[in-house]
Amino acid sequence: MNTFELQRAIRDAAPLSKSERVVLIMATTYLPNACPSWRSLALDTGLHRDTVRRAAYALRDKGLIKLTPKGNETTTWTFHAEALAKLPRTPKIKGGVIPDHRGGGISDHMGCDPRSQGGGISDHTEETRKRQPTTTTINEARERLGEWEAVWDKVIGHGPLPSLEELRRWRPKVTEAHISACLGEVANARTAGTVNAPRSLFFHRLKGTIGKPTPTAWSKAQVLAALRPATATSAPDMRRPDLQAPVVLPPLEETDDQRAERLKTSRAAFEAMRSTLTETSS
Fold first, then answer.
1. Is 202 exposed, middle or buried (CB count within 10 Å of its CB: 0-12, 13-18, 19+)?
2. 3-state secondary structure the chain
3. Domain enclosing residue 39, as ranges
4. Same domain, yes or no: 177 and 82
């Protein structure tokens, strides 16, 4: 079966959904060495990358193709021509009318309308659209960032709250979870007395989140609670130098004879050191 016959078999296959049909036909354009990346197929088909991936996995589970991942983010597609040839064909009725497989009724077919060729399988595009998170506009992000200004003043206490653009220079794709978690760590450090520059520590922690999973978000109340000092009933942290009792030495008391003996011993040690240095230099 050549490429043209393979594409005709895919076009006339009844059990394929719209996304499966489009992805499968587009993958055949890479023959004889079909090894496109998911990004390339998404750009070619105009579908979301997750939709393309789901359609490909559905085709693989039906035994129509074989997917072999490669090391350079591409996947080798192997088409099972015999399985594709055995698929039920979309009935061609004179007059341009075919049964609607989704509702059981009759739908108009104008020759090249892909919507009339959809089978009883659900469309993966709708599933992808439902699973996409709601996007936050730039104005909404700035408003949510401004709500942390009071917390920033209490935790950092030096300089105004950075703008969204400044935070993105330190950490691209920064979220509210990153900001709140870093403020919580700075608050804990200030309570323990282990930080001298809270602003520098905040940006250091923010930059350290690059390449790591999104941390657990802190609420404003949790950050302020971490900033409060320890209660009077809790045991003091004796590792802190400001909480350790200072060592006060008693004043030196000696008699005249003791002072003379101490000076004599010091002078003898000094003379011995000077003679040793003289011999060494000569």
1. buried
2. CCHHHHHHHHHHECCCCHHHHHHHHHHHCCCCCCCCEHHHHHHHHCCCHHHHHHHHHHHHHCCCEEEEECCCCEEEEEECHHHHHCCCECCCCCCCEEECCCCCCEEECCCCCHHHHCCCCCCHHHHHHHHCCCCCCHHHHHHHHHCCHHHHHHHCCCCCCCCHHHHHHHCCCCCHHHHHHHHHHHHHHHHHCCCCCHHHHHHHHHHHCCCCCCCCCCCHHHHHHHHCCCCCCCCCCCCCHHHCCCCCCCCCCCCHHHHHHHHHHHHHHHHHHHHHHHHHHC
3. 3-129
4. no
Name the domain count of the chain.
2
- Burial of 11 per CB tally in 10 Å (0-12, 13-18, 19+): middle
At which residue do the structure tokens 């077919």 appear? 109
Q: Are 186 and 225 in the same domain?
A: yes
Check which CATH number belongs to the domain holding 9 and give it: 1.10.10.10
63/176 same-domain check: no
| Tens digit of each residue's pLDDT, the chain (282 residues) | 677 777 777 777 777 888 888 888 888 887 777 888 888 888 888 888 888 888 888 888 888 888 888 766 778 888 777 777 777 776 665 554 444 444 444 344 334 444 444 444 445 556 655 565 555 667 777 788 888 888 888 888 877 888 888 888 888 888 888 888 899 898 888 888 888 888 888 888 888 888 888 888 888 888 888 887 654 455 555 565 666 667 777 887 888 899 999 999 999 999 999 988 888 886
Q: Are residues 116 and 148 in the same domain?
A: no
Among residues 129, 157, 192, the one where a domain terminates is: 129
Helix (H, G, I), strand (E, B) or coil at 7: helix
